[in-house]
Amino acid sequence: MRNAASVAEDLRKLQANVASVVLGKPEVIRQAVIALIADGHLLLEDVPGVGKTLLAKAMAKSIDCSFRRIQFTPDLLPADLLGTSVFHQPSGEFRFQAGPLFAQVVLADEVNRATPRTQSALLEAMGERQVSLDGETRRLGPPFFVIATQNPYEFEGTYPLPESQLDRFILRSSVGYPNRAAERDLLKQHREGEPVDHLQPVLNAADIVKLQEHVREVRVSDAIADYVLDIIEATRARSDVTLGASTRAAIGFYRATQAAALLDGRDFVTPDDVRSLAVPAIAHRIIAKASGLAGTGDAASEAVLDVVRKLPVPT
């Protein structure tokens, strides 16, 4: 494994590059980088116009990867995502025409506007990094990174993401409005066009694959692993939680803490890594009785925060 400090320097360059166009959002950028190098996917929940698409485009440009934006609508079909076989007249045979999902960074914009049938087409892609079509299995990436967005305040014409879909996202984050100073800088930036169009890559796809390998080598002590499992099990035992965190959630949470440690220049995970990622890694995967839907409202986040507050921290 490379020296953790030198790996962290590469990751700081990536964060700084994205931050040069996504102003005033260091924590969201940090979580996006964690999701990327942990080989997971990111769910962005927020109102329109706060920079979700900009973040996805900036991430793709910064790592020199192919990027496709898919606008999810009720009439979107699985074939519109995955692709289809088209008859080629000169050769007299069918040839596969890849859909927009065959990109390294995919923005699934307003993912909850598509029907459950279309949403389910993402499950295999996100979970297995592959697509099965016409009796063939086609690999995606590497890397393959999905950034999905949804507006948590709009319900008309939407289809809430099922628990199985939410469980595929390693982290959920909220962008939020920028502060006054950042918003003033944004206005200045856009005088001469879109700044993201001029963004230059600082890493490439091969670098990201190596970073994902480095993440898996970050040390996690037995005490820290037990702390992760204590949090997971506590969500299952609460009376105000109908559905607790899954085993997939535990694995994703574990991997995210490794990525966070590497981002900070360490080759070992600390309790602070676990505590800081508990809500973004778990809250969207549980169903709190006060919210009624997986990952909606503040009830799920409050339940996870309460778990973290009450559990003893390993020393």
Summarize the topology.
Layout: H1 4-19, H2 26-37, E1 42-45, H3 52-62, E2 67-71, H4 78-82, E3 83-88, E4 93-98, E5 105-109, H5 116-128, E6 130-133, E7 136-139, E8 145-150, H6 163-166, E9 171-173, H7 180-189, H8 205-217, H9 222-237, E10 241-243, H10 247-263, H11 271-282, E11 287-288, H12 299-310
Please explain how this structure is put together.
- By secondary structure, the chain is α/β, with parallel strands linked by helices.
- The protein folds into two domains: 217 residues, P-loop containing nucleotide triphosphate hydrolases (Rossmann fold, 3-Layer(aba) Sandwich); 98 residues, Helicase, Ruva Protein, domain 3, CATH 1.10.8.80.
- The protein contains twelve helices and eleven strands.
- The strands form four sheets. The chain has a five-stranded parallel β-sheet with strand order 2-5-8-1-9. Strands 3-4 form a two-stranded antiparallel ribbon. The chain has a two-stranded antiparallel sheet with strand order 6-7.
- Helix 9 runs parallel beside helix 11 and helix 10 crosses helix 11.
- About 2% of the residues have low confidence.
Question: What labels would you give this structure?
Answer:
315 residues; alpha/beta; Rossmann fold; Helicase, Ruva Protein, domain 3; 2 domains; five-stranded parallel sheet; two-stranded antiparallel ribbon
Short description:
With 315 residues, the protein is an alpha/beta fold. It has helices at 4-19, 26-37, 52-62, 78-82, 116-128, 163-166, 180-189, 205-217, 222-237, 247-263, 271-282, 299-310, and strands at 42-45, 67-71, 83-88, 93-98, 105-109, 130-133, 136-139, 145-150, 171-173, 241-243, 287-288.
